[in-house]
TrEMBL record:
Keywords: Signal. The keyword Signal applies. InterPro entries: Lipoprotein_repeat (IPR005297). This is Lipoprotein. The keyword Signal applies. Residues 30-68 have a biased composition (Polar residues). Residues 1-22 form the signal peptide. Residues 21-75 are annotated as: Disordered. It comes from the Bacteria.
Length: 189
């Protein structure tokens, strides 16, 4: 649509420039149309409210948003917070203090900002991970989420690579978020 408007505006501008006299009005109309065609059209998917600090979901191509094709693997890695649990591509995983009784309190907008660690089948324990602390729960949407020491695990959409720990000690969606130690406890500070 924009290309068509742009082509039409260019054609009108060229035609007006060659006609003289009335060309000023036609040229101005063509330029107005050209400027309108360059203005971005609102997206149907844009929220109508001002985004909060966490309204930055992982990109659709992000591995933390992808549907799992097999068992999730939880490992440990050294970060600026010390040794923590990590998932896909070495990305830090977090627990949410609002989760109670082995169920997830993080759905919809929360799950976009804090994607759950999903699995197909039993999750696998990597080096430094206690296999007896790994488990799963079934989410409302029918997916299976990985738990550790009965805490549902999540990624943080602002973490872009291995070693990022931007989600630690964040207050969001009515609770606190913390990276997880190999012992299944929350990392402080």
């Amino acid at each position: 649509m924009r290309k068509l408007l742009y082509a039409g505006a260019v054609a009108i501008s060229l035609l007006a420039a060659g006609c003289g006299g009335a060309g000023d009005d036609a040229s101005r109309v063509a330029n107005d149309q050209l400027n309108e065609s360059q203005t971005p059209e609102p997206s149907e998917n844009q929220p109508e409210t001002t985004p909060s600090a966490t309204d930055y979901p992982a990109s659709p191509t992000s591995p933390v948003q992808a549907s799992p094709t097999g068992p999730a693997r939880i490992d440990t890695a050294s970060t600026s917070l010390g040794t923590v649990l990590v998932g896909i591509e070495g990305r830090t995983v977090y627990l949410f203090t609002k989760d109670k009784g082995g169920t997830s309190a993080c759905t919809q907008a929360c799950a976009a900002a804090w994607p759950p660690v999903l699995t197909v089948g039993a999750p696998q324990a990597g080096t430094g991970v206690h296999p007896n602390l790994l488990g799963t729960l079934h989410r409302e949407d029918g997916t299976t989420q990985v738990t550790y020491n009965k805490h549902p695990l999540y990624y943080y959409s602002k973490d872009q690579k291995a070693g990022d720990v931007l989600g630690n000690d964040v207050k969001d969606f009515g609770g606190e978020w913390h990276a997880v130690t190999p012992e299944g406890k929350k990392v402080k500070g």
